[in-house]
Design goal:
Distance between the termini: 29 Å
Number of helices: 3
Structural class: alpha+beta
Strand order of the largest sheet: 1-2
Largest sheet: 2 strands, parallel
Number of strands: 4
Helix content: 25-40%
Radius of gyration: 19 Å
Strand content: 15-25%
């Protein structure tokens, strides 16, 4: 908390990194490790360039859902046509497959995330 307070006062930087919404297919120890490596590399560059400490926050390992500002989204299909579907809300809620059936909220996905 003290480090965050110092960053808020301008005596450091806050660096937050991670995925907007992780997918079950990409969730692995390797993916988390690689993301942390990128965050640490970014922090080194910021520290070197600014001479200021960096508070590092990783937003990962369980971000399987994401809020959406609209209940629907336009999806461009392989043939170039554009269709409107319920929004993809993350693998915890529905699937990122461009069909109406895949976009129906499925409580079994929450169990899979657990």
């Amino acid at each position: 908390q003290a480090q965050l307070a110092e960053a808020q006062k301008g005596n450091g930087f806050l660096l937050m990194g991670g995925d907007c919404a992780e997918s079950f297919d990409e969730f692995s120890t390797d993916h988390i490790r690689d993301t942390m490596r990128v965050i640490l590399q970014m922090a080194l560059v910021i520290t070197y360039g600014s001479g200021q400490p960096v508070v590092k926050i990783g937003r990962m390992a369980g971000q399987f859902a994401k809020p959406r500002s609209s209940p629907v989204e336009k999806v461009t299909m392989e043939d170039g046509s554009v269709i409107e579907l319920p929004s993809y809300k993350g693998d915890n809620i529905n699937l990122d497959i461009p069909t109406a059936e895949a976009r129906v909220p499925n409580p079994e996905l929450m169990l899979r995330a657990y």
